[in-house]
Amino acid sequence: MKNIIGIIVSYIFIIAVIILAKFFKKYGEEASRKFIHIVLSNWWFIAMYFYSNAFWASLVPISFVIINYISYKKNIISVMERKEQEGLGTVYYAISLLIIVILTFGINQKTQIGLCSILIMGYGDGLASIIGKAIRSYEYKIGNTKKTLAGTLTMFIVTFIILSILLYVTKVNLWLIKTIIISIVVTIIEAISIKGTDNLSVPIATCLMLLCV
Description:
Layout: H1 2-24, H2 29-40, H3 43-50, H4 54-74, H5 89-107, H6 111-134, E1 139-142, E2 145-148, H7 149-169, H8 175-192, H9 198-212
């Protein structure tokens, strides 16, 4: 019963986030997108509380792989799609949730690692984009994707904070050194990822590295 309640709560949460994102649209389409990107990463707290195994935890991400792809093609949920339809970022987001669910609810039973990985994708990448645009700094391009030094530094700082909390609380040996190394690697991965692929590369790489710590 708790798993079923979790599915209901998940959909209510996601729909509420999408509706609230419309209020941010007055600040620009990117603002509404990043609001969704950041806030939806907190779905993992719902997953950890309600779901007992990978099967139940994977149902919502699977549904949104399909929903987000249809939205990408038809621009149905306009608040989370770019007009230029650059990349499958929203689809990759849902795929990442699904993969991390399988890895941390199923194979390894370490949902706290999944939480860390998803929050880094949500808050790290999301805030990097916002701050990177708000603060004038050195710009560089990877393919056709523009990045900024301010955004990259933000990604590192947010990643470092989230990782340091997890590794310290879980009493990992040499937690500070490992936090620095993983933060640098994740920041580089985010910087070289193009067309929304950071929604795949960042959480999956983070998760795999943490599972090896």
